[in-house]
């Protein structure tokens, strides 16, 4: 298990249950919950990997959200999926947190 902090997420029990359910899905390699500043709050990955994904994806998500709003100010980013040869990264941004799921798309 990677990063865990003493900060309590709203609905902590529900968050833990959701993370367990997601992690049990076939092909899921890791899950990271990042706050709006890009700081990992929860992770199922090791610390260096968590930090790398949190930092890079935070910047990417902010740019993607900005691009969506630039095209249409009435719109907002609700989900982001990036698929490469090795893995697929899915991001569900929310008001206070980003949920990042990394999975092997071939499994």
Automatic annotation (TrEMBL):
Main location per the UniProt record: cytoplasm
Any one Gene Ontology cellular component term annotated for this protein: cytoplasm
Gene Ontology MF term list: dynein intermediate chain binding
Membrane-spanning segments: none
Gene Ontology biological process terms in this record: microtubule-based movement
Gene3D superfamilies from the UniProt entry: Dynein light chain 2a, cytoplasmic
Domain of life: Eukaryota
Signal peptide: none
Roadblock/LAMTOR2 domain mapped to chain residues: 15-103
Alphabetically ordered keywords of this record: Cytoplasm, Cytoskeleton, Dynein, Microtubule, Motor protein, Transport
Annotated compartments: Cytoplasm, Cytoskeleton
Statement: the UniProt record of this protein carries the keyword Transport: yes
Function of the molecule: Acts as one of several non-catalytic accessory components of the cytoplasmic dynein 1 complex that are thought to be involved in linking dynein to cargos and to adapter proteins that regulate dynein function. Cytoplasmic dynein 1 acts as a motor for the intracellular retrograde motility of vesicles and organelles along microtubules.
Self-association state and partner proteins as the record states: Homodimer. The cytoplasmic dynein 1 complex consists of two catalytic heavy chains (HCs) and a number of non-catalytic subunits presented by intermediate chains (ICs), light intermediate chains (LICs) and light chains (LCs); the composition seems to vary in respect to the IC, LIC and LC composition. The heavy chain homodimer serves as a scaffold for the probable homodimeric assembly of the respective non-catalytic subunits. The ICs and LICs bind directly to the HC dimer and the LCs assemble on the IC dimer.
Family: Belongs to the GAMAD family.
Name this protein carries in UniProt: Dynein light chain roadblock
Source organism per UniProt: Ovis ammon polii
């Amino acid at each position: 298990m990677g990063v865990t902090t003493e900060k309590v997420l709203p609905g902590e029990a529900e968050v833990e249950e959701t993370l367990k359910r997601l992690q049990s899905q076939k092909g899921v390699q890791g899950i990271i919950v990042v706050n709006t500043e890009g700081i990992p709050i929860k992770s199922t990955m090791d610390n260096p990997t968590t930090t790398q994904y949190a930092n890079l994806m935070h910047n990417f998500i902010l740019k993607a959200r900005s691009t969506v709003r630039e095209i249409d100010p009435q719109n907002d980013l609700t989900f982001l999926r990036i698929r490469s040869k090795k893995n697929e990264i899915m991001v569900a941004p929310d008001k206070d947190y980003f949920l990042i799921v990394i999975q092997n798309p071939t499994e």
